[in-house]
Write a structure and sequence with these properties.
Layout (H helix, E strand, L loop, with lengths): L1 E4 L10 H13 L6 E4 L9 H9 L2 E8 L5 E8 L4 E5 L1 H4 L17 H12 L4 E5 L10 H6 L3 E3 L18 E3 L11 E6 L11 H5 L7 H20 L17 H9 L2 E4 H8 L2 H6 L3 E9 L8 H11 L4 E8 L4 H4 L4 E4 L7 H6 L1 H22 L1
Parallel strand pairs: 1-2, 1-11, 5-6, 6-9, 9-10, 11-12, 12-13
Antiparallel strand pairs: 3-4, 4-5, 7-8
Helix pairs in contact: 1-14
Length: 378
Amino acid sequence: MKILIAPDSFKESLEALDVCQAIQSGFNQVFPDADYTLLPMADGGEGTSDVLSYTLGGHWKEVVVNDPLMRPITAKYLLLPDATAVIEIAQACGLHLLTSAERNPVVASSYGVGELIVDALDEGAKRIIIGLGGSATNDAGHGMLTALGMSFYDSDNHTLSQGGGELARLHKIDGKSFHLKVLNTVFEVACDVTNPLCGQQGASAIFGPQKGASATQVAALDDALNHFANICDKSGYQDCREVEGAGAAGGLGYALMSFFGAQLKSGFHTVAEAANLAEHIAHADLVVTGEGKLDAQTAMGKVAGSISQIAKAAHTPVVAICGSVDELTPTQINQFDIIMPSIQKADTIEKILGQAHNNVEITARNIAKAIRLGQCLK
């Protein structure tokens, strides 16, 4: 039996390759002679650069940048042999860099992302792939743009401070010092969501609460993003607020389209093409995928939902192992032959995250036992 194991990472607990290994360990206890292929996947969010490194090679560059609260940290990005840089924004402004108490998108900044881009440009990158996802920010790329030389002023001609809350005070944009190499560089954005910048499905409403925003702050941040887009539009920058993916990573998708002329592509398809995923699925007897949480967003370009579509088209059975399941529609449930949450018992979130590898391994073993039982009953 040929088993393809192709999960996403489990946010804040396991990298995609770790999930692969946990699933293989569980299945191997029941099917030790199976032919296993491990293919860690990503959708433009956390883990994208690791997956592309696993597939394409290259080398890592470490840089000291500012985290979402403007504290120095060491981040890394991937340099490929063809003058391509792969930057994962979560390295510099990821939610995982903050404690629960520190999460506050009103003040969190994407400045460190701009610092990574500056370094890649200085290294001679002619093409930059940026993986969006996992951000702690809601600043529409204001911090990133500032690091690249863009200036933002209020009505008193004072420079705006960092954070999404400051965007409400924006009055004028000055791009005279914007990094010159940006215009001669191809920017491709691997995007894991299709949300617009503003509104009920926008960056603030959908992702703000998980970044620490209260209901009042969500409303204020949404207004601030809309105001920011209005000023950008009046300043001659392309108005992309309604384009799918503009709301990704707290509005970084919007900034990359409006200021960099970037094309947003499905992060999943970017990785899947590089990894020859469709070919692997076509040759497999069983596909096992998964992600930390299966919910309504699973069908919006994320790994598990996208893999299930390819597997169904190839008539290959597909199993999803996840941390938890929340509000899937009957249609979404029917995308998979089996959906199995892996949490074994109620506990604190810290302990659950710490037990993720063991929980995934146990769940994989139980699924394999069920498959074995099915074979015996035929």
